[in-house]
Amino acid sequence: ARCRDRRGEENSSWRDLCLGYEALRSVRVKELRCNGFSVRLHHNPARIKSTTAPINQKSIEKRPCFLCLENLPEPQRGILYREDFIVLCNPFPICPEHYTIAHITHGPQSFEGMVSTFLKMTKDFSPDFYVFYNGPESGASAPDHLHFQAIARGILPIEKEIVDRARLALVKCIHAIPLFRVKNVGREVIIVEGGDSTAIDGALTSIVSAMKSVLSSPAEPQMNLLGSYEKNTWRILIFPRQRHRPSVY
Q: Is residue 239 within 8 Å of residue 192, measured between CB atoms?
């Protein structure tokens, strides 16, 4: 509620945010049915500044970090979250409720050591929001600054598709946490779910470590994560951006 109140305040004083939300009114959306699953296409030219932002090292070094507190636009306001993060309205929203949750200290985008934080955040923002993480090479427009994002639930096609338990194929259990692959959705999706935060933490850590091992690379595997918490249960969706052998999980 506080996030929503603050967005209303900023809409009247921060021109970029106001323009970002005005642009949502003219977004063109088309849903494509694709042999058992759907893809929703959004045409939103106002997001081009964010989606095409250069993220190579040379470009990053030349620009001030737009998520550091000292570089925030003067009209921008935030809400301190758990002492280490600040919740900010995203000026390039993909939906009417879109927030960036940035660490108050400048440091690289990395999921390592952040699993428990991600789980706490997912629980805190439930039941109205999904919390998601974009890897530094998987859609993060600020790979030099640790951040998560939150969007309103109810807008993603995958939400409806995973309700059908017949789509979920159990692969194995890790730390007593079931790991599923989602069938017939046109891309690789892995789901872990359970009510024990310590076990979920261990399972996610093991999965990310296995993905790195398969790639034989010290870099974080290319991935996106989407988390929800409902009825005392976490459900974490992992979208690998590179091919992996399912057997390693």
A: no
- Going residue by residue through the chain, which has 249 residues, state the pLDDT in tens, using 9 for 90 and above: 556 655 656 666 788 999 999 999 898 989 888 887 888 888 888 887 777 788 889 999 999 999 999 999 999 999 999 999 999 999 999 998 999 999 999 999 999 999 999 999 999 999 999 999 999 999 999 999 999 999 999 888 899 889 989 999 999 999 899 999 999 998 899 999 999 999 999 999 999 999 999 888 888 999 999 999 999 999 999 999 875 444 433
Count of Cβ atoms closer than 10 Å to residue 246 Cβ: 13
Give the three-class secondary structure for 141.
Answer: coil
Dihedral sign from CA coordinates of 101, 103, 106, 111 = negative
Q: Which two tokens stand for residue 96?
A: 């009417």
Q: Is the peptide bond before 246 cis (omega within 30 degrees of 0)?
A: no
Pairing of β 85-89 and β 233-240:
unpaired
- C-alpha to C-alpha distance for 234 and 194, rounded to whole angstroms: 5
Element (DSSP H or E) covering residue 3: helix 2-13
Compute the distance between CA of residue 233 and CA of residue 227 in angstroms, rounded to an integer: 11
The pTM for the full model equals: 0.90
